[in-house]
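Project channel, design review

CF: Before we commit to the Reyranella humidisoli constructs, I'd like one complete example in the thread so the newer folks can see what an input/output pair looks like. Taking MFS transporter.
RD: sounds good, go ahead.
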Amino acid sequence: MVAAFQVGKAPPALPSIRDDLGATLEQAGWLLSVINLMTALGGMAIALTADRIGHRRLAIFGTLLAGGASLAGAFAPNVDSLLVGRILEGLGFISVVVAVPSLLLRLTRPGDQRLAMAIWSTYMPAGSGIMMVIAAVVLPGTSWRIVWLVAAAAAGLMAAALLLLAVPRRELDPLPVTPRPLLSEMKEVATSGGPLAIALCFGAYACCWFAIIGFLPTLLTERLGYSTSTAAIVTAAVAILNVTGNLGAGWLLHRGVPRVAVIVGACLSMSLCAAGIFVSGVPDLLRLVLAGVYSAVIGVVPGALFTAIPVHAPRPELAGASTGLLMQGSNIGGLLGPPITGALVAAGGWPSAAWLTTGALAVAAAAGLFLHWRERHKLAP
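CF: and here is what came back for MFS transporter:
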């Protein structure tokens, strides 16, 4: 969650950054998306690096790197320097999120692993949402530089906690691994049907999620007349509601509900809800209600997908690399969703965005069905 602070701090701070540094809209877009780009490009490679140097070491390194880059970014004299800092924050972020799942699996009993991974899946909506609220509260009386300092301080405290509490845990010591060619292991994961289906499903989910969350502030300011800070807080609250679905997935799976029912049921039912946010004829306040319902329910998808990694990894030692592939799929979807939505809205107005949400969730449902087919064959006696 603290790593996700680096993602959530940027959207509310963009107006302050543009006023202070004179950033163009294009530069502002890069400041938002560069973390997604770093994860989309390097998720699996960094995960395999974690397997070699140790997941605990990489988690601590990533936390320190993100905190140091945020601290340096707070004193950036221009946009280019700030962008370099965002690139380093992205490397720190992806280092943490690909390293932690393997550590969690080693700390939990086999019967609790699905629940633990579902709880883990809350890191993005909870972390980024909390930081968006903090930024929206801090910004009116200060500047974006204070927001960067807050994120840096949080990372510093977390690094200290890891050094004090995680380093002494012997069960988290690096495991002996048989060295294999990096490209060979990347190919093994990338050509395995299960991890690919997980990545595709998460990518389609993220494409729809970021399309809605990214444009919700615009809808709130244009249609409901909310102020920028109020729109940021409301959007953060909608994002945090995603946590209820993440935890709900763990509860459902822990009680034996099939993964396919969780994924496909949520995608098909929420495709109508997501479309209602954009189509014509829906009262404006109802759009906000639909956004909240969508965020809360669709959160079961990442919760279900994270729990599928131990089942579908080609080998147990490639669970980290499979997580990296999932993260790449997620961030590719996050990169594609907002610009495609923007193009659709520019061409045909807000109702056109419903085509993206419906199509993306249909792809996620299809990937969930394929994942179920793979799981039945893999677990068959």
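RD: helpful, thanks. The longest helix spans residues 193-223.
CF: DSSP finds 17 helices and no strands in the chain.
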